Amino acid sequence: MKKMPEKKSDKKSNRSRSDEKKLKKTSKKPAKKPTARKSRKSEELYDDAIYEEELDIRDSDGAERPRNARKKSHNKSILFITYTFVFIFLCMIAYIVKFVVVDSEHRINSPYNKRQDLLAEKIVRGDILSSDGKVLATTVTNSDGTESRNYPYSRLFCHVVGRMDNSRTGLELSEGFSMLRSTTNPLQKLVNDFEGKKSIGDNCFTTLNYELQQTAYDALGSYKGAIVAMEPKTGKILCMISKPDYDPNTVSENWETLNSADEQESALLNRATQGLYPPGSTFKILTALEYMQEYERFNQYTYTCNGTANFHGYAMKCFNGEVHGEVDLTDSMAHSCNNSFANIGLSLDIKKFSATCEKFGYNKSIPFNFEYNKSSFALDKDSKTDEIIQTAIGQGETLVTPLQNLMVISTIANNGEMMLPQLVDHTENTNGKILNEYEEESLGQKCKRKYTRKMKEYLEAVVEYGTATSIKGHTYGIAGKTGSAEIDSTGKSHAWFVGYAPAENPKIAVSIVVEGAGTGSQYAVPIAARMFENYLGY
Amino acid sequence: MQNLAYSVTVQLSRYLIIIMFAVYVLGCFRVFSKTPEKAEKTYRRQIGLVIAIQFLAMLILFLSEPKKIYIILYVGGLAFVIFTDLAYRYVYKGISRVLLNTSIMLIMIGFVELARLNTGYAIRQLCFASSVSFIGLFVPIIIEKFKYFNKLAFLYALVGIGLLGIVFIFGKEQYGAKNWIFIKGVGVQPSEFVKLLFVFFLAASLEKTKSIKRLLFVSVIAAVHVLILVFERDLGGAFILFITYLAMVYIATEKFAYLLLGTAMGSGAAVVAYKLFSHVRVRVIAFLNPWDHIENEGYQVAQSLFAIGTGGFLGMGFTEGLPDSIPVVSSDFIFAAISEEFGVFFGICLILLEISCFIMFINIALKMKRVFFKYTALGLAVEYIVQVLLNIGGVVKFIPSTGVTLPLISYGGSSIISTYLMIVIVQGMYSINFTESQEVLKHEEDA
Hints:
- In chain A, 40% of the residues lie in helices and 16% in strands.
- Chain A is of the alpha+beta class.
- Chain A folds into three domains: 1-107, no CATH class; 116-206, Penicillin-binding protein 2a (Domain 2); 213-247 and 265-536, Beta-lactamase (3-Layer(aba) Sandwich).
- Chain A has a six-stranded mixed β-sheet with strand order 4-3-2-6-14-15, with no helix packed on it. A five-stranded antiparallel β-sheet of chain A has the order 8-7-19-18-17.
- Chain A is globular.
- Chain B folds into two domains: 2-136, no CATH class; 149-446, no CATH class.
- Chain B has helices at residues 2-30, 36-64, 68-91, 97-117, 119-136, 139-145, 153-170, 190-206, 212-231, 235-253, 256-276, 278-288, 299-311, 334-342, 344-367, 371-395, 413-446; strands at 172-174, 177-183, 186-188.
- Classes of the chains: A alpha+beta, B mainly alpha.
């Protein structure tokens, strides 16, 4: 590409200037191109058209310096521009390839993408299965050729698996495209395409454990609330329950009642990921962690609890007015001492506190391809004493989803490394070939190991001699934190428990909220006990 | 039976069209290293491939819906391809065949996609293309006869700024940018033609003198162009002219410092524009995170990415996608529609073809003997490629979307006419350059 002109210019520049002129004069003869000829005829060089050789000569000023120098650098600037654009375009191609290979997978699973129905015309939507192979959702082809989606376990998985009718939700929404892909046999698919027959879509294997789901579902009983559990090391979600629930098989028929304005139950809402609750005392984990990060000598912390206290004119009291006496940080956690934590809260740098909470997921989105709400932490540098002490004990404006609380406790259990929650283990075609194994994804180290090590001791103390002693006595250790989030002045509260087991080598972390039931110790801890027993044995 | 024929054709074509197009694009790159006889073979094969792809695509359209209009469009399109190929080879001596074939191919791709999206647009596009193709035959004669092309810097600047000024005062807003004027109901985008004048202006002004005074003068005139476009909210147009100005000053002066200085000032101006204009911020928001603003600012880009992502590498198959879900699909976002149905492989080949087209422009510029020709070819090359970058980059969210058309492919009379003129002007100058160097060679031999 660049050879041709250079060759010619070399040839030219070897000629002397007079030669050049001679050439121009001779070029009169053919008399074909008047424009070109005229310009060359004139002795004044820069009259009509300017030729590059002439430019070279002029620049050289008759001196002996190489005439090619300028010409060559001329080409250099042109080539620089050319290569720059080619480079930018190659980057763009790489970007497109990356988008199609990596990002498009979960991007196109959006309810705003109307193309699922197009694919569904060619492919029978695949099944959703639990990790132990139970079919949670399947497509049934009716005798008249129409298809309908069937949920064999009805209400049990209704929120996490989701529904197809009346706006898609859950995995039906987020995994729509993976189940509308058929990878069985490309040739067979081609033949099917030609014949207009439908191919069978790939199946989606979730991380959900059927037994655990059933146990937790039963344990929550008729209460409203949510339960969600995960493997702290991988982020795999083991169960997800939200009550009240509904039957996804008949959602169309019952849509009006389920969706009516005066419906107080909000059965359609997946409370596990979308329900926003005050965290209650479970929030003390982050308050204590922040205190440890700010005060190197946190081991020497002491506070004398008199049951009630007054902070700059604002009253605070421990649950039932209990008097905890002189407490250190361990005791404060174990007994969930409000006065001590209000005291701690006032000693914190609010800016840093806020940063820590955001690091742990408050006010932030996560790349979790599932419907969820952001949890919120509201303190800032202008916050008043009242707000600070309330927030420190988990009341105030702070709102958290059970999923967010699970991620906090899992991060402690996993020594400070937060894992991205994950609901799909892999997809598999109808021949049983595993296609798309989802890899665990770390969201990063959220705090130093030395603090999580200490925090684990505190959480074990909660079970050992604190508010969750009723869960003690298993062959493995259990750690956790209870919470009773007051919701109104009548003393009604949401019962919380977040915890993990075995304490030595955590295999499961749980986050449980029971709406309006009472204390965490009384209503949430027993549910955790049943779940741990089911998953780990007694 | 017809259904079967349709689905067989669609499915086979998914692979066939990609393969044929890839072969075509490969030919554009490999032709450099071929002997003239072999190159001639490649050129012929390329036209064959254009005709074959067009046939397959129009066949699918006809099978999906047997309407007479598709037959008319097919015959019209085929006539355009054959006429342009033969006529230009005859009229233009020493024409760049790669560039000729590529411009035909690009127009044809846009044409079949428009036939699929909106037959009315396809008919009008064909009329525009045919007219400008016919007019283009006279370009070399005009350049030859009219020899003061390089003397009219002031006139180019005056007419350019005048046109932009008229739009600024009488213009109508369309898709957020005020760059249209309507003459008796016919919409024209003068900025498309100002692009040509702007390059002529720069080439003519920088041809001889590169003194600081001249550079300042050029910079002021360029700034007036760019600023008017910014105030008309035609950010894409403003960016194209600015980069062209920068590149041409750099090439003319060969001073890297000017390029750096210009880039720094351009970046500064971009920040100021971001702070000052809400429409700039909207584009940036849509670029940074279309997903969180999917109902408003990010809607168009998100829909475009859905189309590209769902189509995947092999595409949904022609007529099997849902390109109508993308706003302004037939002009600014046509690349997404093409990618969705013909596949991302096809889309990537298309980008490679645009690169080859740009390299061809540069190659021609390097061979030009007259400085004015050389600078004009370079300026047009930069304008062309920046516009392609803005368009495709915006569609795939590589850069913020600026609302420019994809040259020769997008629907739009002003766009296709001005881009086609760009190409024939370069071809015409190349042709003159060719005859001149033929003469020189002849005289060398005589001597």
